[in-house]
Structures are given as C-alpha cells and as structure tokens.
Amino acid sequence: MELILAIGIGILFATGIFQLLRRNIIRSAIGLVILMNAVNLFLLGTGAYVGGEPAYISSVAGVRSDALPQALILTAIVISMGGAAFVLSMLYIISSRYKTSDLDEVDGLKH
Amino acid sequence: MLHDNLTVLPILIPLTGAMITLMLRQTQRLQAGCALGSMILSLAASAWLTGAVWQGAQPIVFHSGGWSPPFGITLVGDLLSAVFVLMSQLVLTTGIIYAIGSKDAVVKYPTFYPLFLMLATSLTGAILTGDLFNMYVFAELMVISGTVLTAVSDDRYGTEAAYKYFYISLTASFFMLFAIGSLYVCYGTLNMADLAERIPLDGGQPLLLPGIGFLMATFMVKSAVFPFHFWQPDFHTAAPTSVSAMLSSVVVKLGVYGFLRMTTLLFVLQAPVIRWILVVLGVAGVIFGGLSAVGTHNAKRMLAYSTLAQIGFILIGIGWGTPLAIAAAIVFAFNHSLVKAAMLMLAGYVASRAPVKSAAFDIVTGVGKSTPAAGALFLIGSLGLAGIPPTNGFISKMMLFHSGIDAAEFGALLLMGIGSLLTLVYTNRAFQRIWWQRPHENTRAKPTGDHLLAPVILIVLVLILGLWAEPLVQVARETSLWLDSPGLYIQAVLGG
Q1: Which of A70, B76, B257, B274 is the 20 to 30 A CA-CA neighbour of B377?
Q2: What does the pLDDT read at residue B365?
C-alpha cells in the first residue's frame, strides 16, 4: 500500500511539474491543480504511519494514523481550491483579451 | 493577561478593520478613514509590542486558545519579529495615507481598503507566528490579497502581472507544503521552537535536507532572490503605486525574515551551507539587479530591480552570519523598507503628473520641472538607496561593510562596492531624466497629482534615522545577540 501510494504521488508530482512548464496556458493551469493533489496526498502520507489505517478508530486497538496531517490537508485543500479558482478566473480574462492559449503570445508586459 | 495579548493585537486590529471597511464599502470616505484609523491603531499596538519586548528583555508568547505548545498555535513576539512587525506596519500606514491622497481609479474599488488591511494582517501574522503551517496560511493570504490588489490596477497589464505572480507563488506555496510535510514526518511537530529543539538531536533524518531545500526555495520566491525573481519587476511595475510601494518594500521582507529564522533557529547545524548559498545568490542579485536597473526604461521598473539588488545586500549580511553582520542585515532591511517605499511613491507621484499615467522615462521626461519639492525628496531618497551620508542608507551600508571587513570577505565586498556604484548611477539617471531634462515639445505636466504627504513622512524618517541612528542600531545589535542564542526563544515558547 505504501509503495503504491509513494509511486502514485511521484507520478502525480512529475506530471504536475511537466504540465506546469508547458507553453499552453490552460495546460499549465491544470498542471498546478495536479501538483496541488500531489502535495495533498504527500501530506496524507506523512500522517499515515501504518498504511491505510484511519485516523481515530480502527479494528486493532491502539493502532491509528496521525490526525494532524488530515487537518492540515483540509486547510491546504480549501486554500488551494480558492487559488485554483482565482487562477482560472484570471486565465479567462487573459485568454479573452489575447484570443490565444499560447503563453508566448501573451506578451503585453514586454512593451 | 493583557501583556501576552500584545502579540495578537497587531494581527487582530487590521483584521477587524478589514471586516468593518468591507461593510462600509458604500461610503467611500468613511471607509478610507476607518482603514487609516485601524492601521494607525495597529501601528501603535506594534510599537507597544516592540517597547514591551525591549523593556521585558524576553519574548512575549501567546498561546492561542490556551493550548500549551507544541500542540496549539503560538504567536511569538521576540525582538526580531517585533522589529519586523513595527517596520511593516509603519510602511503600510504610509501606504494607506498615500492611497487616500491618490488619484488612481483603483482606490475607488470597493474592496481596495479591506484587501489592503488583509495584506497588513497576513504580513504581520506570518512574521509573528511560531508555527510553520500557520506561516504558510498567512503567506498564502498575503499572496492572494497582493495579487487581487494588482489585478485591479489602473495599469492595463495588471491582470497579466498578477497572473504571473500568483502562478509562481502558488507553486512556491506547494513547495512550502512539501517542506512542512517533510519536517513533520521526520520530527512530528510543526512548532518552530519544538522543531529547533528536535532537529539538532536527530540530524540524520532522510527528509530533512529536502525539507530545507523546499523551504529555501519558498522563501526565495517570496523575496524574489536572484534566480527566482522573474515575476518581480513586472508585478511591482504593474501594481497601483500605493500597493507596489508595499510589495517592493515590506512584503519581500517576509523571505528575509524566513532566512533569519532558518539560519538562527530552525537549522542551526545546517546553517553554514545555507549561509554560503545566501552569500553567492546575494552577490549575484546585487550585480544582476544593479545592471538590470541601469538598463530599464521605466522608473518603477528600475526601482523594482533595485529591490532585487538591495535584497541581495541583506542576504549577504545574513549569509556572513556574524552577530555584527546579522545586526547590519536587520538595520538594512528596516532602512530599505522606508527608502524604497518613499522612492516608489515618488515615482508614482511623477507618473500621476505625467500626461499619460505611466512611469516610463520617455513619458515622464521633464515632468518634474514644476515640482522641485518632489525632486528634492527623490534626491534624498536616492542618496538613501546608494548609502550616502545624511541618510539612513549610509548607516546600514556602513554596518554591512564593517562586518564584511571583520569577516575578511574582500571579494564579496568589492562586488558590493560595484553594486553600490550602480545604485548611484541609475537613481541619478532617473533624477536627471525627470527633474533636469527639458520636456518634449508637446508634453505638459498635469497641474495636480497624488498627495505628497506619505513620501514626506517616509523621507523625514529616512533623515531622522540617518542622523540619529543609535536606537535602531542598538536594537538590531541586541536582536542579533538574541538570535545568537536560540535557546532563549525555545525556552520562552516551550517553557522550563
């Protein structure tokens, strides 16, 4: 379980970074969202000392995951959701102004 | 106890003010007055906090919700955070004064003042908090309020600059979360004092180094250190004047604060490597920022690049790491905030007098002819940036060079000298273009512009701190002594 989780987070992180560096403005915004999920899963992983155990109750007495990272993730999810919404709304303004999705053509600041 | 609650006041007052001004958005003058009032109150509170910490000679710690550390969130007002909070609130207050006297359309935006106060809240909170995750939350709040304030700017490219900044900052925030996760999985705590106690006991954890690396990357993006700076000139140029003066002076200081905490509290054992990196990047920033500032065609952009160079000077001070160098870095940070805010406000003032609202040299050439007073202020400010006597810039540069000579870092000193000369070159070129050269044939300056009260206050402070520097220098030296013994901080937070 731990191995699958670790590999999954690694793949998500790599995909996120790769998409983040794309020239297409929408792809790069989606890369940000993927990266966000990778981070949240990583935080989840820090609390799960024993694989798939839940935070408070489990079948075996005394064995449970750490609850704090889950609280951290809750905060992080809310913040990054707001961030993603804001990124998408600004992306909408920019793409309607320049009529393009290629970041190289969004060059108003160069002048 | 009132005494402990002092650390909450500088966060709570602007937060309350933001909520009240949000309700007052129908009545603009009342809203502006309320924003100014709450900012002045909070400035008074932070001055009180600094005074109380100085008098009591020990950190003031507030356990939120009564939870004892390391379980609850603690707010720690030690001398370093108190000085940084005082500096931030001082500059933010003048920012509100400038915004009230400003002719920008953006200050009529109904949520301008609430966002401005949120910026103050989050900056203060990020500095005062003693918990890494709490710092992440406040830093994120700061990024969002700064971005929105820029996105609604009068500049038509404001949205693009804001997008660029937000995009990079969001990535940096994810890096900070990675750092938080890495440190948590190694040490099982996020309280900075608790971390500082546990890290030296068990320095071999596999995720410690990635955690340090991610945290460094975050702070470097936050304060636009050389290879992480590409968003900064655009963002600081496109922001409304009153906001860009804040972004370029106090908001970038969060990264500086973070590095001070990293090298003196969190990662004391790993500090030599961090310091070495800071010195290298600082020197690169000094040279690169100076050369870029010389090459720009816009007064605001020039000052944004100048911030890059000045942050480089501060990082070099932190990087040398001797008590004198750290004191110099603190004095430098304080003085740079005042000077840079004043200079950006003056550049914005000139832009508001120009026929087209822009600070590009082609447009503002000769615009200053009719305002010799602003010219005099700009000249004093440029002396302050370059570090020439009656200004506070001289004090900070002198302390920094003195510490460099003590540490026998002559190569870096030479490059810093070149960087200082570049400062003189670009500020004086801007002064000549705006106040000496003849305006173009059909250029006519507008009769009125923004109000000059805010830059006057800042320049007066620049002169006062230049002529009567002992109190600040003394506080900075005491701060560096506190930072030299992290046990003081740890004991104040964790008790016993």
Answers
A1: B257
A2: 81
pLDDT tens, residue by residue, B286-308: 999 999 999 888 888 899 999 99
Closest CA to B151 of B209, B106, B197: B106
Alpha-carbon gap, residue A67 to A44, rounded angstroms = 9
**What residues 148-177 of chain B have any CB closer than 8 A to a CB of chain A?**
148, 151, 156-157, 159-164, 166-167, 170-171, 173-174, 177
Taking an 8 Å cut-off on Cβ atoms, the answer to whether A69 and B167 are in contact is no
Q: How far is B47 from chain A (nearest CA, A)?
A: 31
Query: DSSP letter at A102?
Result: B
Question: How many residues in chain B?
Answer: 496
- At B212-270, the pLDDT tens digits run 999 999 999 988 888 888 888 888 888 999 999 999 999 999 999 999 999 998 888 88
Q: Are B120 and B92 in contact (CB under 8 A)?
A: yes
As given in the structure block, the two tokens for residue B35 are: 């924003």
Please write the tens of the pLDDT for every residue from B451-483.
Answer: 889 999 999 999 999 898 889 999 999 999 998
Tracing tokens 């870092």 back to the chain, one arrives at B409
Q: How far apart, in whole angstroms, are the C-alpha atoms of residue B389 and residue B359?
A: 28
Strands (E), B292-352: none
Q: Are B332 and B314 in contact (CB under 8 A)?
A: yes
Residue B433 near residue B294, CB atoms below 8 Å = no
Q: Residue B121 belongs to what H/E stretch?
A: helix B112-128
Identify which of A36, A66, A94 has the shortest CB distance to residue B174: A36
Amino acid at B74: T
Please report the DSSP string for B420-485 in residue order: HHHHHHHHHHHHIIIIISPPPTT----S--S-SHHHHHHHHHHHHHHHS-HHHHHHHHHHHHHHH-
Rounded CA-CA distance B300/B331 in Å is 24
pTM above 0.95, yes or no: no
Q: Which residues in B65-150 belong to E strands, given as ranges? A: 74-77
B-chain residues within 8 Å CB-CB of A76?
A: 136, 177
Round to whole Å and give the CA distance between B389 and B265.
Answer: 34
Residues in chain A: 111
Q: Is residue B358 a contact partner of residue B436, using CB atoms and an 8 Å limit?
A: no
